Amino acid sequence: MTTAIIDRNGNLPKTTQSIKTIFANLGLISAGSLLFVIGMNAIMIPRNFLSGGLTGIALLLNYRFSFVDIGMVYFILNIPLIVLGWLHISRRFILYSLFGVVIFSATASFVRPPVIQVQDPMLAALLAGVICGVGSGLILRSIGSVGGFDILAVYLNKNFGYRMGSISFVINTAVIVVGAHLHDLNVALYSIVLLFTSGRVIDAVVSGFNTRRSVMIVSNNAERIANDIMHRLNRGVTFLDGEGGYSRQKKKIILTVSPLTELPKMKELVLHSDPEAFIVVHNTMEVFGKRHSAPKVY
């Protein structure tokens, strides 16, 4: 048995860290693919639900021509996107994504879970959305993908600045509209519920159920409040220069970021120091930097 040598700061060598990172990403992609396929094969396909992206196209072809294998079609449709990503995104991202495409295609073809017997189609759509959302969220927590239009979205975002969420929305909507035209309108509407539920679950999984809020505080006791936030809540603060619109009085505005679970405590702390303080709380999608997560690099 070998023992990894750690430095005097208690950190593992970079080689060991990189190997652990690789296995962690491969594990997330594999687990996410398996969960998504369970939701797809156990709920979506028995009820002819639709999906977005290349998965949705593969499902439509399977519903139209029963002999079509979803996993094989998904793999073939991904080939041009893999080439595009290899040439224009990054080799690391595409190697992870190629692994994801192979795993997803294989599980879609060979994993056959028993059909989950949910009688109400709305409940079935919600359950499928939760299962597939957890799977997709695990995949998105990696630095790869399972291919599909995610590669196209990353390419357009990286090269032209288009927002990935907007690209995915347009593509998914197009697939659902085509499905409603060729298949069944009621099924398409249930599929929209499925996609909406999946999206909400994805957000929760990707954020780790620890969403943050950016908080701006305007107070005449800014110094005291900032000191309390730093020492009692262990949160960083930034002072912004402000000026009252009516009084023209110069003020220091406090900007800080708080986990959702700590927000009530922060409000109590601020109002205890200044009952007349003005507090603005913003929903924050992502926070990068010191003490927070690092941006994903493809």
Briefly, what is this?
The chain has a 4-stranded antiparallel beta sheet with strand order 2-3-1-4, with helices on one face. The protein has helices at 14-44, 53-64, 70-88, 91-110, 121-140, 149-160, 164-182, 185-206, 222-232, 263-273, and strands at 212-218, 237-243, 250-259, 278-284.
Structure description:
The protein is of the alpha+beta class. It folds into 2 domains: 14-206, no CATH class; 212-284, Alpha-Beta Plaits (2-Layer Sandwich), CATH 3.30.70.120. The chain has 10 helices and 4 strands, in the order H-H-H-H-H-H-H-H-E-H-E-E-H-E. The chain has helices spanning 14-44, 53-64, 70-88, 91-110, 121-140, 149-160, 164-182, 185-206, 222-232, 263-273, and strands at residues 212-218, 237-243, 250-259, 278-284. It has a 4-stranded antiparallel beta sheet, covered by helices on one side. Strand 2 and strand 3 form a beta hairpin. The longest helix has 31 residues, at 14-44. Residues 1-13 have low confidence and may be disordered.
Low-confidence stretches: 1-13
N-C termini distance? 35 Å
Biggest sheet layout? 4 strands, antiparallel
Q: Rounded to an integer, what's the Rg over CA atoms?
A: 24 Å
Count of individual domains: 2
Strand content: 5-15%
> How do the strands of the widest beta sheet line up side by side?
2-3-1-4
| Series of H and E elements | HHHHHHHHEHEEHE
The pLDDT mean sits at 83
